[in-house]
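Q: Predict the bound structure with magnesium ion.
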Amino acid sequence: TAPRTFRIAAIPADGVGKEVVAAGRAVLDALAEDSAGAFAFEWREFPWGCEYYERTGTMMDEDGLDQLKDFDAIYFGAVGWPTVPDHISLWGLRLKICQSFDQWANVRPVHFLPGVVSPLRKADDTELDWVVVRENSEGEYAGLGGRNLGGRGPGGEVAVQSALFTEVGCERIMRFAFDLARNRAHKKVSSVTKSNAQQYGMVLWDDVFKRVAADYPDVETESVLVDAMSAKFVLKPEDLSVVVASNLNADILSDLGSALAGSLGLAASANLNPERRYPSMFEPVHGSAPDIAGHGLANPIGAVGSAALMLEHFGLPDQAARLNKSIEATTAVGILTRDVGGTASTEDVTKAIIDALNA
Ligand code: NAI
Ligand code: MG
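A: Predicted complex:
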């Protein structure tokens, strides 16, 4: 049979994004090379990001979305650099892609690895394993609001930042979470809100959750307020399987989860357009890490794990599993970057993962 060729748009963007995207590409290319021609990856790299902004005044080309729309997937690094205000760089590239391509489901597994010491007392990579499902198209990141409202003059500025919740938006992310839970050993969905204080949008969320849950009697459910859930992440993580939350709450909780697993550098993420009308985007959870960028210190595991999520999206679950096993084989023997207590470089870890593919 003819090889399946997947066309991937790589957008390394800024800081460690460049280092970890290079690592992920190397691992995927090694996998393809070893596939005896069964599949191949065709890459195109885009130079967008903060340096591009400084040169051109835009984070991506005017017709950037047009350039991206026919790729099979987008492999993203991280955006942001101290020379450009964060709200400009984030909205100009990452959020623009997520929202324009209706990547409404953001899947963020919290994965505990052998050989990585977690700050959690009870941490055990055989028992702890959960996924944060983030509503990725509306909520607190809908971009609704404005500044200079009310004309109160200098020193009296007023700004409004509104959250948007729609029944359709809530329902689709919840069904996605329940479908995911059905395929896991622990069939449970935890819904997170702050509906005691935010009485409109988040109460709508709670109502939709109850309605959708009725269609999944085989899946256990709970509704937890976000402050209590952050405590639960630390104190009772063995109780978690699929955690579904709004854009902002899930963003915060997934950083907490990856820190508990040992480092922000470990966490993978998929921004999915489940209808496949547009390309989905795969990226590590972490940002551009200006404090360590350019020194070969970045942990590539979040980016490589995101590549595994991309393989699943391509319909190559065996290859995804093989990649994840290679990550585990690497951490298990103590080949670790500095953030997780080791001395290995980005390149050392990447090479070890590639070597483990064929072990
Ligand atoms: P960050 O995630 O870049 O860094 C937080 C801490 O985690 C730093 O101490 C960093 O050294 C460490 N870290 C992050 N990734 C690592 C890796 N792969 N290996 C080892 N250590 C790692 O978050 P921060 O500092 O708040 O933001 C820096 C920039 O990144 C900002 O401009 C921010 O807007 C942007 N950002 C972009 C995101 C994206 O593109 N998806 C997500 C989060 C932040
Ligand atoms: Mg975040």
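A: The chain has two domains: 1-117+268-359, 120-261.
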